[in-house]
Amino acid sequence: MLNESAFVRACRGQEVPHTPVWFMRQAGRSLPEYRKIREGIGMLDSCRRPDLVTEITLQPVRRHDVDAAVLFSDIVVPIAAAGVDLDIVAGTGPVVAEPIRSAGDLDRLRPITAGDVDFVAESVRLLVGELGDTPLIGFAGAPFTLASYLIEGGPSRTYLKTKAMMYGEPQLWHTLLARLAEITQTFLRTQIDAGVSAIQLFDSWAGALSEADYREFVMPHSAEVLGGLADAGVPRIHFGVGTAVLLRAMGEAGADVVGVDWRTPLDRATEIVGPERALQGNLDPAVLFAPWEVVEREARRVLAEGRAAPGHVFNLGHGVLPQTDPEMLTRLVELVHLVSAR
Ligand code: CP3
């Protein structure tokens, strides 16, 4: 049934009745019902409660009629399960109490088993029961993006400490990324075994790297994650921000679908990525703050450029911004369905 959904079919480059659409960060602060249910409950605590995860994941599906749900969780959930002391601070993001900067620090990052993230499997099972014919997307952070938080200790603009380790201590770097790849693969496998219809690997900050450095220091580890899941048969989406020069390599890492931010038009992206892979994207999330006429014009342009790709999943070029008017998202879903109806 889910294999016949417009979302999964588009990921596989098969014909679809309409272009499927979902939004990164569709569950979250743009929704008043989310802000209400989260009152007084920490972000990580809410990720560990299957009842809350289920409700928050379903909220945008009910409201917007999107073609897929995305599991409510965070990329740092598996590294917290691996023993790293961290918190998600509102308005800042993940903050790591003791950053990982030396070989000795690696002891604080042990492998995980499915049992360490049983709350995620339970959430997925509950959601699959509730969602019926709407597919559920599972996700994880890619080794580079996770490493950047672990090494910097929090968000960064320059990735200075991350790159210092990458260039200065390549052996330590590769050991750390290999360990993160293993954790990430277990985390994704747990979600697949519990029933998600697709997975997305978020390498949000990989755009900080040149193509050569990406291929040498990062791609082998992301390829380990994606390649290790090839047998599962669910579409694998690979996404990052500012990745215009990396799109080809990110596809080659083992993706079925390459996520594209708003900087690269999708027809150009398909030339770079090649004809074997579908694309996801790529309306600028800031466009949703413009008058509706502009949103409509831009969405029509994205749909037209997306026709060059073998399959197109409509999305924003990055996550929904917290200040977004949810009504704009609902109208956008309606428009995408209407304009793309075959
Ligand atoms: O709807 C969805 O997309 C599912 C939920 C989701 C969250 N985080 C929930 C969340 C997903 C897919 C993520 C992934 C994630 N987390 C990424 C990759 C996606 C991207 O945006 O590039 C990254 C880099 C993180 C790390 C992280 N966690 C950041 C940068 C932040 C934002 C900090 C802030 O407050 O502005 C978080 C916190 C976070 N993750 C929130 C949500 C809903 C906000 C915290 C809250 O609601 O209290």
Strand and helix map with partners:
Blueprint: H1 6-11, H2 32-37, H3 43-47, H4 50-64, E1 69-70, H5 77-81, E2 86-89, E3 93-96, H6 118-131, E4 136-141, H7 143-152, H8 160-168, H9 170-194, E5 198-202, H10 211-227, E6 236-239, H11 247-252, E7 257-259, H12 266-273, E8 278-283, H13 292-306, E9 312-316, H14 326-340
Parallel strand pairs: 1-4, 4-5, 5-6, 6-7, 7-8, 8-9
Antiparallel strand pairs: 2-3
The protein binds coproporphyrinogen III.
Tell me what the structure shows.
Catalyzes the decarboxylation of four acetate groups of uroporphyrinogen-III to yield coproporphyrinogen-III. Keywords: Cytoplasm, Decarboxylase, Lyase, Porphyrin biosynthesis. It is a single chain. The protein is of the alpha/beta class and 342 residues long. The protein has one domain: TIM Barrel (Alpha-Beta Barrel). Helices cover 46% and strands 11% of the residues. It has 14 helices and nine strands. Strands 1-4-5-6-7-8-9 form a seven-stranded parallel sheet. It has a two-stranded antiparallel ribbon with strand order 2-3. Strand 8, helix 13 and strand 9 form a beta-alpha-beta unit. The mean pLDDT is 98. The site of coproporphyrinogen III (CP3) has 22 residues, from strand 3.
Reported by name, the CATH topology is TIM Barrel
What kind of sheet is the major sheet? 7 strands, parallel
Total separate domains: 1
- The overall average pLDDT, rounded, is 98
Spatial sequence of strands, sheet with the most strands? 1-4-5-6-7-8-9
CATH class membership? Alpha Beta
Radius of gyration: 19 Å
Number of helices: 14
Shape: globular
CATH architecture: Alpha-Beta Barrel
Unreliable spans: none
Assembly state (oligomeric): single chain
| Share of helical residues | 40-55%
Structural class: alpha/beta
Bound molecules: coproporphyrinogen III
Query: How many angstroms separate the termini?
Result: 20 Å
The percentage of residues in β strands lies in 5-15%
**Order of helices and strands, N to C?**
HHHHEHEEHEHHHEHEHEHEHEH
The count of strands amounts to: 9
Binding site for substrate: 25-29, 74, 149, 204, 318
Keywords: Cytoplasm, Decarboxylase, Lyase, Porphyrin biosynthesis
InterPro entries: UROD/MetE-like_sf (IPR038071), Uroporphyrinogen_deCO2ase_HemE (IPR006361), Uroporphyrinogen_deCOase (IPR000257)
GO biological process, one term: protoporphyrinogen IX biosynthetic process
